[in-house]
């Protein structure tokens, strides 16, 4: 799989996680909402912007954001 395909795959995964998190945030605590608003959502927006360049650095940045989103989603679901 080339870099562009990997970036597209991670970007799709990131967007799916973002949508799931937004649904869970309706039921979440104020602290969770603050973490999303101040720390995670800006990273999602930044990653979307750099994803258009499709470089190895872009892939690494998306990997980091997806990992953070997965961790946050687990926290929200109590797992």
Give keywords.
79 residues, mainly alpha, elongated
What does this structure look like?
The chain is an all-alpha fold and 79 residues long. It has one domain. The protein has helices spanning 3-25, 30-51, 56-77. The longest helix is centred in the N-terminal third of the chain and has 23 residues, at 3-25. It starts with a helix and ends with a helix. The model has no long low-confidence stretch (mean pLDDT 85).
- Can you tell me the number of structural domains? 1
Radius of gyration: 13 Å
Can you give the mean pLDDT?
85
Category from helices, strands and their pairing: mainly alpha
Helix content: over 70%
Profile the largest sheet.
none
The helix/strand series, from N terminus to C terminus, equals HHH
Query: Count the strands?
Result: 0
* Discrete helix count: 3
How would you sum up the global shape?
Answer: elongated
- First-residue to last-residue Cα separation: 32 Å
Strand content: under 5%
Low-confidence stretches: none
Short description:
The chain has helices at residues 3-25, 30-51, 56-77.
Topology:
Layout: H1 3-25, H2 30-51, H3 56-77
């Amino acid at each position: 799989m080339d870099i562009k395909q990997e970036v597209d795959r991670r970007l799709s995964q990131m967007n799916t996680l973002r949508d799931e998190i937004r649904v869970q945030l309706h039921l979440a605590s104020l602290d969770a909402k603050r973490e999303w608003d101040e720390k995670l959502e800006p990273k999602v927006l930044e990653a979307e912007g750099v994803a258009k360049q499709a470089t190895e650095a872009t892939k690494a940045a998306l990997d980091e954001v997806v990992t953070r989103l997965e961790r946050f989603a687990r926290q929200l679901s109590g797992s």
